[in-house]
């Protein structure tokens, strides 16, 4: 092990971790307001990425990116309206199973349209990769990290400083009281799905120039995002990104020191171990019932 | 002039009907108390009036307009605000945020700052605690937050559900005095209370509910001396 | 609809029909293609049957059914090919391994709220899949073959027709298991648990343990199905055991209906149909390459559509259709309902059953119950009264182990149960009712009360599936206990009604019958009369009197003061969580403090504006 390897692990880990964190934010935002764990999070993020790829064929990149984000947000809201809202009187279990159905439908629809091939976007800024102390990092990685940071700041400001954001939080804190002050809880739930789609979509788009995307990547993205979300206690946006980075670092270290065969395995094992031993993640929230 | 009129109101939880055809009238500028023992349907009635629950049959009019099927949002915009049972504050949000959310339904037309000033004049203690999380406040202070939040939508009608529930005596009298002051400021108040004595002393008129029906109604002072009230509450009456 | 004769021989008729189907279907089908379809159908149905035990009976969902099948398939393959074991031994060992693995994962995770199990099983499935794909020993992604046909007792299942027999026989056994389990003591406990965990625990069910059992069983079902798969294919590779297959199994269970053991059969048939149609239709519409994606799309869409349109699945929808076409009529009340109670175990009046000292419960900054002492004796009714919000329900929750106290001590029969969880308290003879009656949808009145007999039975899932004399005797004893409880509450004539179709008055009495079914020595009643009309209240009062005469120690939380005053031996008044007064009904009714607590203070007008609130 040398400093160059360690530096590379950090650079790769933080970049990938940002992506996991952003998907994790999607889980957290939806879970906080509706209690639902959305199995389709990764697939919805990919909808945004594929939309951006399509838009990039006809409009300039700077326009294709926001359009892709918009599509991710809109599809996520649509999922709420079509699959979750009609099940509002059913048990949460049923709603969660429905998100699984949505995930599969979305994934296979993408496959029917795009096939199983790899797609890529142009990097946002052209130029060769940057060398830092012997380690290499693509310029696009800075975009990924920067957009994640901006996302965390924007969402935090939104939830804590704006009226609408407070209203969304209010639904999470006390839905009955939210209704009393005239907040439309269903609308806020739809909005939370939209926000989640936008957040996850943004970073999925930002990473598309970095590594290719395929339609089958959604499940893996969901699982890794979920690891980040569990580390964030399914509640904290900032800690979720921290969780994502932790996962990214573990994966990067595994890749360098044990080989890429074990990368995914490391993340999955971390998830299983977390759920068994530390389900509250980095938080001190109470998640277990009295036994 | 009557501001709220309710006729033939029925409400069921699933197959169980808990309000069996309520008729009720509230005039502008008066305090109307709805009293009765636990399980009488008082809270259900108030939640139906406030739009939290939908009535199955019957009509509710607000200033002559049929609002039986109106959303909570629409009711708040028409100047009707509910202070629900058990405070129901946003516990993990600050007092300030709780108050601010009170303006949500009318956020485009109201000036939050001046309304907040009025609330702080009414409850100076809330100003001291404005940055504290509402869930960490005492029960009495949470009740102030709940009433303050309702006032932030500048309502003309205030529906108060058991504001004295579980509060120590000095808070009960403070809340009761506040309610009177609000009436004196021109607000109409519907007050649901188990604390019958305090409610009847405060109210202009009252309805006694028992098992989902209006048992009797009339001027509050007359009900205060009505032996049926004690019988309904403590049992051992003439039936 | 069920004539007594049909009802009596229902099991026998069912078995006969099943035997006929299993015997005749393989004879009628000749072409190997259809035989192959039937084998696949059977394996999918068996996998889904395992999932129904988790989703339908335990209310959790798992995405590892294909992974369990992988354990079975690879286990059988390794056992027979590499180790030279007998197929039956290999199958058994694989099933045990699957069960143990799942126990290790399920036990901690099933204590969690929310849907962690789904994600954990998803991760488990992915890990196993990756390990299998990367394992050079096991042939990696191409797997390995040479698996001998399944054989048992010298019969070898080596042609396709015999394999159809094999799969159908195992499926029929699985179905038998699931049906028996649903009607067994543990099955009832699980179904109750799915609807309301608190109530089930109050009847002695250890929630996390019961759910873990169901989860372990689902793994065993999955593993056996996987073994069958390996023996019919004679070859294993990782591809069929991916997450997508687990999802398909979930779809099978959901489409059929997760509440009924018959659901998987319907669901598996539908899935087979979808697969057949997609392979013939999709190439024409979307092209050859889209078959897989098109099929998946149909599966995903179907999952959502079925959930939205008929969340109980096909079998559930048929059930509600039948209920609508032939509505059950409430039987007329018998002329004289109340049956005198059977002689209860002799109890000495006055013996202290429940002793509580210094009980305190704080929620954050709020003290809900503060320093309460109380004693409850055999053959007495203690009324706990107080204004709304005084802490009465919290008190019942503390006594029954639903909440654990911040301070203080609770002794039941001289034994410290302060920290005991609800199911342990119930096992020691304390029963309780709930303010809002909790009836278990889909259960009859008798079944509902049978849930209450949980603490007096012993038979576990495995034992109740095999009808040994001991098990039958126990089930009969439980049934008699439940029937006795119904009889003393005057509900016998309603025993076969669906519990959720009862009137509120009957549901409230049903709560008590369920509480009584486990022969408790202490019964806590949380507002038994709330919402009842006058006649129903009188019936309730009479019932509680009888229970006291039988020697049961009763604690009554009630708002109807007329009833309380008429019924209780002593009244314990609480306000703000503290004891205000304890005494006879008359003493309490006259007490000025109590009147103040109920009707409020008649404070002086001239205090206006003079009180500064400080504290």
Q: What are the SSEs and their pairings?
A:
The complex is a heterotrimer of chains A (291), B (239) and C (615).
Chain A: H1 3-34, H2 41-58, H3 61-84, H4 92-114, E1 130-132, E2 135-137, H5 139-161, H6 163-173, H7 175-180, H8 185-207, H9 217-231, H10 237-258, H11 263-277
Antiparallel strand pairs in A: 1-2
Helix pairs in contact in A: 1-5, 1-8, 1-9, 1-10, 2-3, 2-4, 2-8, 2-9, 3-8, 5-6, 5-8, 9-10, 9-11, 10-11
Chain B: E1 2-13, E2 16-27, E3 31-35, H1 42-49, E4 57-62, E5 65-66, H2 72-77, E6 80-83, H3 95-102, H4 112-122, H5 124-128, H6 139-151, E7 157-161, H7 169-184, E8 188-193, H8 196-202, E9 205-210, E10 213-219, H9 220-224, H10 227-234
Parallel strand pairs in B: 3-8, 3-9, 6-7, 7-8
Antiparallel strand pairs in B: 1-2, 1-4, 4-5, 9-10
Chain C: H1 4-8, H2 10-28, H3 32-58, H4 65-82, H5 87-109, H6 116-134, E1 144-145, E2 150-152, E3 155-157, H7 160-183, H8 185-195, H9 197-202, H10 207-233, E4 235-236, H11 243-256, H12 263-286, H13 291-309, H14 313-325, E5 352-363, E6 366-377, E7 381-385, H15 392-399, E8 407-412, E9 415-416, H16 422-427, E10 430-432, H17 445-451, H18 461-465, H19 469-488, H20 504-516, E11 522-526, H21 534-549, E12 553-557, H22 561-567, E13 570-575, E14 578-583, H23 585-590, H24 592-599
Parallel strand pairs in C: 7-12, 7-13, 10-11, 11-12
Antiparallel strand pairs in C: 1-4, 2-3, 5-6, 5-8, 8-9, 13-14
Helix pairs in contact in C: 2-7, 3-7, 3-10, 3-11, 3-12, 4-5, 4-6, 4-10, 5-10, 7-8, 8-10, 8-17, 11-12, 11-13, 11-14, 12-13, 17-19, 17-20, 19-20
N→C terminal distance of chain A: 45 Å
How many beta-strand segments of chain B?
10
Strand order of the largest sheet of chain B: 6-7-8-3-9-10
**Could you tell me the number of beta strands of chain A?**
2
Instruction: Estimate the helix proportion of chain A, in percent.
Output: over 70%
The poorly predicted ranges of chain B are none
- Averaging pLDDT over every residue of chain B, what do you get? 89
Give the SSE order of chain A as H and E letters: HHHHEEHHHHHHH
Number of helices of chain A: 11
Q: Largest interface, counted with CB-CB under 8 A?
A: A-C, 49 and 54 residues
Global mean pLDDT of chain A: 90
Q: From N to C, what is the helix and strand string of chain B?
A: EEEHEEHEHHHHEHEHEEHH
The gyration radius over C-alpha positions of chain A equals 19 Å
Overall morphology of chain A: globular
Give the termini distance of chain B in whole angstroms. Answer: 37 Å
**Largest sheet: number of strands, sense, barrel closure of chain A:** 2 strands, antiparallel
- What portion of the residues of chain A fall into strands of 2 or more residues? under 5%
Q: Helical percent range of chain B?
A: 25-40%
Strand order of the largest sheet of chain A: 1-2
Q: Ranges of chain A with pLDDT <50 over ≥5 residues? A: none
How much of the sequence of chain B is in beta strands? 25-35%
């Amino acid at each position: 092990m040398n400093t160059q390897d360690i530096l590379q692990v950090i650079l790769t880990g933080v970049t990938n971790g940002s992506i996991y964190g952003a998907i994790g934010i999607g889980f957290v935002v939806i879970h906080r307001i509706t209690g639902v764990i959305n199995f389709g999070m990764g697939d919805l993020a990919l909808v945004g990425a594929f939309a951006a790829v399509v838009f990039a064929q006809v409009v300039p990149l700077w326009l294709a990116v926001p359009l892709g984000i918009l599509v991710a947000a809109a599809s996520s809201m649509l999922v709420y309206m079509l699959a979750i809202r009609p099940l509002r009187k059913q048990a949460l279990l049923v709603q969660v199973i429905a998100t699984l159905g949505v995930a599969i439908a979305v994934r296979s629809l993408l496959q029917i349209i795009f096939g199983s091939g790899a797609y890529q976007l142009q990097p946002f800024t052209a130029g060769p990769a940057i060398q830092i102390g012997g380690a290499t990092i693509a310029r696009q990685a800075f975009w990924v990290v920067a957009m994640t940071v901006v996302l965390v700041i924007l969402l935090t400001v939104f939830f804590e400083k704006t009226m609408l954001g407070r209203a969304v939080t209010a639904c999470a804190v006390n839905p009955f009281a939210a209704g009393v002050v005239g907040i439309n809880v269903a609308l806020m739930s739809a909005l939370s799905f939209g926000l989640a789609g936008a957040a996850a979509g943004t970073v999925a788009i930002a990473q598309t120039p970095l590594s290719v995307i395929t339609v089958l990547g959604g499940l893996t993205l969901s699982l890794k995002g979920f690891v980040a979300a569990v580390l964030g206690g399914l509640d904290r946006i900032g800690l979720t990104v921290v969780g994502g980075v932790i996962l990214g670092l573990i994966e990067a270290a595994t890749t360098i020191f044990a080989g890429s065969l074990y990368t995914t395995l490391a993340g999955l094992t971390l998830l299983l171990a977390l759920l068994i031993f530390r389900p509250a993640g980095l938080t001190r929230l109470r998640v277990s019932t009295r036994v | 002039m009557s501001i709220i009129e309710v006729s033939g109101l029925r409400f069921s939880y699933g197959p169980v009907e808990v309000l069996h055809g309520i008729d009720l009238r509230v005039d502008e500028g008066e305090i109307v108390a709805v009293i009765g023992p636990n399980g009488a349907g008082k809270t259900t009635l108030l939640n139906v009036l406030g739009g939290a629950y939908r009535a199955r049959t019957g009509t509710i009019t607000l200033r002559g307009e049929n609002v039986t099927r109106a959303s909570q949002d629409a009711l708040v915009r028409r100047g009707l605000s509910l202070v629900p049972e058990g405070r129901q504050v946003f516990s993990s949000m600050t007092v300030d945020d709780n108050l601010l959310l009170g303006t949500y339904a009318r956020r485009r037309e109201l000036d939050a700052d001046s309304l907040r000033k009025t609330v702080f004049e009414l409850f100076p203690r809330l100003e001291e605690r404005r940055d504290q999380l509402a869930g960490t406040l005492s029960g009495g202070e949470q009740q102030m937050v709940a009433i303050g939040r309702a006032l932030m939508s500048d309502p003309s009608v205030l529906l108060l559900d058991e504001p004295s529930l579980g509060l120590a005596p000095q808070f009960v009298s403070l809340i009761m005095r506040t309610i009177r002051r609000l009436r004196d400021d021109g607000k109409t108040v519907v007050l649901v209370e188990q604390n019958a004595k305090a409610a009847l002393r405060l109210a202009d008129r009252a309805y006694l509910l028992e098992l989902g029906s209006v048992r009797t109604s009339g001027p509050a002072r007359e009900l205060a001396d009505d032996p049926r009230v004690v019988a309904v509450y403590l049992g051992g009456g003439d039936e | 609809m069920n004539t007594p004769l049909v009802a009596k021989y229902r099991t026998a008729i069912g078995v006969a029909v099943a035997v006929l189907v299993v015997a005749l279907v393989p004879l009628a089908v000749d072409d190997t293609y259809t035989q192959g379809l039937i084998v696949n159908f059977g394996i999918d149905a068996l996998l889904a049957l395992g999932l129904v035990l988790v989703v339908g009976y335990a209310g959790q969902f798992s995405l590892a059914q294909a992974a369990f099948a992988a354990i079975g398939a690879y286990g059988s393959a390794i056992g027979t090919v590499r180790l030279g074991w007998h197929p039956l031994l290999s199958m058994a060992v694989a099933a045990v391994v699957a069960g143990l693995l799942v126990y290790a994962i399920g036990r901690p995770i099933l204590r969690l709220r929310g849907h962690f199990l789904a994600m954990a099983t998803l991760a488990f499935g992915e890990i196993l899949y990756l390990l299998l794909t990367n394992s050079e020993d096991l042939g990696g992604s191409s797997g390995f073959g040479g698996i001998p046909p399944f054989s048992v007792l010298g019969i070898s299942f080596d042609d396709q027709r015999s394999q159809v027999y094999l799969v159908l026989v195992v499926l029929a056994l699985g179905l038998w298991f699931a049906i028996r389990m649903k009607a067994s003591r543990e099955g009832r406990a699980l179904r109750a648990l799915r609807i309301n965990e608190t109530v089930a625990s109050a009847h002695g069910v250890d929630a996390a343990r019961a759910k873990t059992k169901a989860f372990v069983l689902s793994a065993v079902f999955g593993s056996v199905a996987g073994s069958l798969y390996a023996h019919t294919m004679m070859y294993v590779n990782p591809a069929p055991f991916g997450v997508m297959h687990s999802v398909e199994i979930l779809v099978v269970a959901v489409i059929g209906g997760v509440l009924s053991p018959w659901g998987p059969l319907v669901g598996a048939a539908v899935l087979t149909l979808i697969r057949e149609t997609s392979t013939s239709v999709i190439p024409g519409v979307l092209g050859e390459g889209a078959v897989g994606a098109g099929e998946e799309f149909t599966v995903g869409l179907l999952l959502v559509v079925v959930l939205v349109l008929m969340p109980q699945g096909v079998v559930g929808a048929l059930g509600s259709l039948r209920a609508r076409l032939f509505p059950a009529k409430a039987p007329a009340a018998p002329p004289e309902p109340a049956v005198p109670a059977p002689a209860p175990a002799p109890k000495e009046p006055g013996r202290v059953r429940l002793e509580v000292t210094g009980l305190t419960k704080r929620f954050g900054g709020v003290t809900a119950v503060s320093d309460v002492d109380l004693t409850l004796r055999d053959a007495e009714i203690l009324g706990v009264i107080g204004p709304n919000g005084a802490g009465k329900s919290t008190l019942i929750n503390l006594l029954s182990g639903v909440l654990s106290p911040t301070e203080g001590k609770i002794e039941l029969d001289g034994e410290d149960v302060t920290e005991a969880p609800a199911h342990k308290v119930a096992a020691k003879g304390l029963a309780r009712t709930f303010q809002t009656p909790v009836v278990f949808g889909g259960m009859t009145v008798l079944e509902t009360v049978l849930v209450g007999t949980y603490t007096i039975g012993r038979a576990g899932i495995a034992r109740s599936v095999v009808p040994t004399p001991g098990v039958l005797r126990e089930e009969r004893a439980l049934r008699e206990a439940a029937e006795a409880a119904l009889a003393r509450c005057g509900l016998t004539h309603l025993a076969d009604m669906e519990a959720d179709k009862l009137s509120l008055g009957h549901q409230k009495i049903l709560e008590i019958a369920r509480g009584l079914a486990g022969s408790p020595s202490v019964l806590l009643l949380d507002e038994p009369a709330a919402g009842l009309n006058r006649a129903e209240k009188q019936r309730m009062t009479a019932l509680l009197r009888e229970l006291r005469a039988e020697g049961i120690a009763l604690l009554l939380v009630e708002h109807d003061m007329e009833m309380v005053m008429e019924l209780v031996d002593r009244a314990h008044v609480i306000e703000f969580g503290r004891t205000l007064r304890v005494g006879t009904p008359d003493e309490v009714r006259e007490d000025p403090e109590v009147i103040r607590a109920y009707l409020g203070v008649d404070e002086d007008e001239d205090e206006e504006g003079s009180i500064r609130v400080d504290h």
